[in-house]
Protein: Diacylglycerol O-acyltransferase
Organism: Nocardia colli
Amino acid sequence: MNLHGRLDFRSGRAAGTGIIAGWPAVDIRPLRQRDRLWCGVPVLKVVRSIVVPEAEVVRARLAEWSAAHPADARVRLLDVERGRTGRPAPGWEAAFLRSLVETAAAGCPADRSSAPDVRELGGLPFRLTLGSEWARFGYSHALGDGTASWDFLGWLLAQDNRPGFGSERCANGPLTRGLLTTFCRPKSKLPQAVSIQREIRHLRTKGVEQAMHVAGAPSFATTTVASSDSFVQGARRFRAVRGSPASVMSIMTLRALLLCRHHGLKVDDTVVFMVDLRRYLAAGGTVAGNFSWSKSLPILNSDTPTELSARIGGILDSGLPLLIFGQAMQRSMIHGSGRPPARGSGAVRLMMSYGTRWPSAPPPAGVSPPQITVSIAPPGPNFLAFNVVEAYDRIHVSVNRSGGIDRTLVDRIATDFVADLGTGPIDELLWGR
């Protein structure tokens, strides 16, 4: 029995006092389940050649937000080992804010071979380092997925006092609302989702069906490149010339697959896609924290971008990713990213997180275009994970590669990946193989 606690009526559990990584804490409560699953995953984002705000401005912004939203995990102490958060005890608030936002006189450090261990945060939910024209943002994935974390970072680095970020407008929990919105209409999409799941299983080559669980932080490294400022418009023209409704993500997924093979990598026949589940909420519903999931999809040798786009669209429209996410929440576990490569195949798996736009990006500084790096461990061994962000009229891709995959090859693949469409070594094969 917690004699020092009080009942938190939102969670039905007692909120108490204690110590989190050396910090005296009050109002200690468990993280939401969908955030707790990601608690031990560190993420590092570095943005260069930008105008950065003063540290005191950011601290004041955080203090104001914390006072108005004391339950927000992004402005609370984080116990990554026990999956809980707490507010700094009275008298410790100022030290907490100083630790969240630091300044650095030296130049931006080189990208590390891996994201920092979340335990290095020392009980902090994140650490933002502000330098001269650069910012380094290390945090626990428990704070949010790509959509939520880019919104948060944009708010932290804003030059003006813009309204707050990521408030949650979704009654009864986003998973419940998403399932009701998607499957409880007069014509349910559940048969479509089941049919598509069976079709996907039939398309897969025979392999070892098992969940993927990564023990500890796997060794990985990051390659970062950016496209020209003509890439985004050029990609749309490239598609229009062929009269195709294919999404740019489908075009770039096939481009990544063919480039890997062109440069001599043996690639598995499935690609893992990250899906933002906010698409399944009713209009106006927003979600803070983590509300994304992965879906593994086979790609046929004969697939064109148009065919792949139609298959992805059918999966998204059916609501299947939301069902899989709900199943994982029910089992309180991460299933990983679907089917691993067959044992002994030596094939590399691709993961694609594409389409995140950063409309709240801070303004550029100087003549050099901004550069964005995202370091996050791939979901398992023998992975190439493409993390693509659209900002400053460019795409910025960070390829996080598992240890053991040749760096030189990955550097070439990344460079060819951001080349203007129509100029790459395999682009003529996209619609005719």
In short: The radius of gyration is 22 Å. The domain at 174-429 is CATH 3.30.559 (Chloramphenicol Acetyltransferase). The chain has two domains: 28-156, 174-429.
